[in-house]
Every structure is written in structure tokens, then in C-alpha cells.
Specification:
It is a single chain. This protein is an all-alpha fold. It has eight helices and no strands. Helix 4 runs antiparallel to helix 8. The two termini are 31 Å apart.
């Protein structure tokens, strides 16, 4: 999933020369992928919010940290759902390579998610899943904006981006360092979990850098747009 407007791209993201037919095909593939993400991420985000606010997540995390006991059925279901989405999206991307403009970044993101899901089942700490998946609320808003471009939602989208990607997820990383330092887990689990968190947080900050760059570049693109000539009808751009 590309993490900002599909209007923005750089030379590393797509072939330098595409025919009009290839460009149209790529846009259709991206649109279908966005629709897929909207439905799947919407369900995942809704289930995450329901689980987070109807279960005693913090207490269950402490119980699973100390004993490894199986918790509420919703925790493993949500954990499995997060991993299944990552796997499905990888399959989708490999089946339709043009659906995503940043495939390498997204592949690394999904591999980190799949690894963390595996650790959740291996260590019986699936109660850690709801806080980690709350970021999908922002992903849902992102995908909604890419499809519908609802101007009234833009402030909410930006606030959710800053909160979940630049505050919530780094905070989870710090919390994870202490949580998985428990003697029950061992150094391999601790290092694996924290490497995955480092990768995910690094991607979030890099995507933020690109996102801010795209916002700053938008006015310059508008200023650089050619003025319509006198002979050009007002309803027709010079390129038409």
C-alpha cells in the first residue's frame, strides 16, 4: 500500500517511459488495489477498535507475559487476521505488480508484520496485537482519501497520521523493549521483535518525509502549470 497520494511519484517508483495505455493500465491496477485495501483494512480496523475497547488488553498482556496462557479468542483471531492480510496483499502485489508504486518498501513492511504475528503465536502474546493494529485506522483513512478525496476528512487523516505513525508506534516500540525483556522469552525473541519494530517505525518516518515532500511540492506544480493559450478553449487544457 502506497502511503500517500497516488499523484506523487519519483523516478525510482515506476519505469521512466510508459505508453498512455500502460499508464492507464497501472492506474486501473492501483485503483483495484485501493478498493481491495479499503474493504479488508476497514474490517481489520473495525475489529481492532472493538477488541481494544471491549477487552482488558493491558491486564491480559501482563498475564500472557508471565504465564503464556491462552487469552480471549478474539486476540488470536485478530492476530491471524493481521497476518492473513499481509500475506494476501503480498500475493496480490506479486500477481499484479503495477498495483503498488513502492513494492520493495511494502514487501519489507509485510514481512515484518508476518514475523511479529508468528512471534505472537509462538510466545502466546496475541494480546499485544490490538495496540499494534490500531494504526490501521490511519491506513483506512489514507485509502479512503486516495479513492474519494474527501476534503473534510483531510485534517482528521493528518492528525491520525501524526498520532499513530509518529507517536503511537514509537511508543509501542519502547514498551515492547521492556515487555519482551521478560525471562520467559529470551534474547532471540527480544531482538527479532525489536528489529521488526525498528523497520516499521523507520518506514513510517520515511513515508512521512515523502508525504510532507509531496504536500510541499503540490503548490510548485500548480505554479509551474502552463497558462492556457488564447486559442485554447477554457474547458480544454493545452495538453488535450
Amino acid at each position: 500500500m502506497s502511503l500517500y497520494s497516488t499523484d506523487t511519484k519519483n523516478a525510482a517508483d515506476a519505469p521512466a517511459q510508459l505508453s498512455p495505455a500502460e499508464k492507464a493500465s497501472s492506474k486501473r491496477a492501483e485503483a483495484r488495489h485501493d478498493e481491495f485495501n479499503l474493504w479488508v483494512v476497514g474490517v481489520l480496523a473495525g475489529a481492532t477498535v472493538y477488541c481494544y475497547f471491549t477487552r482488558d488488553v493491558k491486564n491480559d498482556q501482563l498475564i500472557q507475559q508471565a504465564t503464556g496462557e491462552r487469552g480471549d479468542w478474539l486476540y488470536p483471531a485478530l492476530c491471524f487476521g493481521g497476518g492473513a492480510y499481509a500475506v494476501l496483499d503480498l500475493v496480490y502485489m506479486f500477481a499484479e505488480p503495477r498495483c503498488c508504486r513502492r513494492p520493495v518498501q511494502v514487501v519489507w513492511h509485510h514481512l515484518a508484520v508476518i514475523t511479529m504475528v508468528g512471534l505472537g503465536f509462538l510466545t502466546n502474546t496475541q494480546s499485544c496485537t490490538p495496540p499494534a493494529l490500531l494504526v490501521e485506522l490511519n491506513t483506512f483513512l489514507l485509502t479512503w482519501q486516495k479513492i474519494f478525496r474527501t476534503k473534510s476528512l483531510m485534517p482528521i487523516f493528518i492528525v491520525s497520521w501524526v498520532f499513530f505513525r509518529l507517536y503511537w508506534y514509537p511508543s509501542l516500540w519502547v514498551w515492547s523493549c521492556g515487555y519482551y525483556a521478560h525471562p520467559r522469552f529470551g534474547p532471540v525473541v527480544w531482538w527479532t521483535q525489536n528489529v521488526c519494530f525498528a523497520l516499521l517505525n523507520g518506514l513510517n518516518f520515511y513515508w512521512t518525509y515523502e508525504f510532507v515532500g509531496s504536500l510541499l511540492a503540490a503548490p510548485k506544480k500548480r505554479d509551474a502549470a502552463p497558462e492556457p493559450s488564447i486559442k485554447t478553449p477554457l474547458h480544454q487544457s493545452p495538453a488535450q
